[in-house]
């Protein structure tokens, strides 16, 4: 997994952009949607194209957001979009046309493949996911069933078939803690800036913020401090963190804010462009975007975090930093 995702050079950014997927020009979006239509047609399914989705004759809607981001980020450029669209259409149709995993998998296997997943609250269907647990401003936790080709987000109705929600969540959290760390990169900079980035192909890499103590121990061999950590979950395959120990928290916060905003852009499975303060039982947002049209990232801290900053900056500077 690359830390910063950059799409290949294509049409210049001053070319008219597609209203649904601004990382595409109008012409690129037309090519992308033509590839999608053709991919579904090869499977005998005629679909109607809309800006962000396709709908078949039975009224089934298939979103295109993740596929569009995958195409945008593929280094091969538009020549690969047909292949990616065909693979996506085949996977989607196998999933929706086949029997439900909830009906075919034994209960023990279902429990072994349960994971909590942190998602953006944008577009969350409260009618079907009433059990969604608040994590932080704009972020929620759902339970998901991990399948070979897809991830099934479990609705209220599905959970009702499996048992008591809190018991299922405890099992899902146990499964999350047992995931291996696929990759780790350390980002360093001036004034003692330093943070870790856990990366991986797992759809639950960013969701490991829910088990941060385990991740910190696995990757650094250390424990979290009483002051907690800075965390960022720009998209599903990345989790960044900085354990708060000294005045290095100041440059690290600034660096992570820029990192999160950059890594969030145009990515499949986007979660949040912000940095948060993690403490047991509470996650507080620390960064935010400027006004519309303003790309600047702003840091906004509350009285509790300001007290932490004041106390740590009054101490000795971090190793490698300057006063």
From TrEMBL:
Ranges for the region named Disordered are: 1-20
User: What is this protein called in UniProt?
Assistant: Uncharacterized protein
């Amino acid at each position: 997994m690359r830390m910063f995702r950059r799409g290949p050079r294509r049409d210049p950014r001053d070319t008219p952009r597609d209203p649904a997927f601004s990382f595409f020009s109008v012409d690129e979006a037309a090519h992308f949607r033509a590839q999608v239509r053709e991919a579904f047609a090869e499977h005998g399914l005629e679909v109607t194209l809309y800006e962000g989705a396709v709908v078949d004759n039975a009224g089934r809607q298939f979103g295109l957001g993740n596929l569009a981001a995958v195409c945008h980020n593929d280094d091969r450029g538009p020549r690969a979009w047909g292949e990616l669209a065909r693979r996506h259409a085949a996977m989607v149709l196998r999933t929706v046309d086949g029997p439900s995993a909830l009906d075919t998998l034994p209960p023990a296997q279902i429990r072994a493949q349960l994971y909590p997943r942190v998602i953006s609250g944008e577009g969350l269907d409260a009618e079907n996911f009433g059990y969604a647990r608040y994590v932080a401003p704009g972020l929620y936790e759902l339970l998901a069933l991990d399948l070979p080709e897809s991830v099934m987000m479990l609705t209220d109705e599905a959970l009702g078939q499996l048992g008591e929600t809190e018991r299922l969540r405890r099992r899902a959290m146990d499964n999350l803690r047992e995931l291996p760390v696929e990759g780790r990169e350390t980002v360093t900079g001036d004034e003692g800036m330093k943070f870790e980035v856990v990366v991986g192909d797992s759809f639950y890499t960013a969701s490991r913020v829910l088990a941060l103590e385990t991740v910190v121990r696995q990757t650094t061999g250390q424990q979290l401090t009483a002051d907690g950590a800075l965390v960022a979950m720009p998209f599903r395959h990345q989790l960044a963190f900085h354990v708060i120990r000294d005045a290095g928290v100041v440059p690290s916060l600034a660096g992570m804010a820029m990192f999160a905003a950059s890594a969030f852009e145009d990515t499949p499975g986007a979660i949040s462009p912000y940095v948060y303060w993690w403490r047991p039982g509470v996650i507080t947002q620390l960064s935010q975007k400027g006004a519309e049209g303003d790309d600047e990232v702003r840091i906004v801290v509350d009285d509790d975090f300001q007290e932490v900053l004041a106390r740590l900056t009054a101490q000795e500077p971090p190793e490698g930093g300057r006063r």
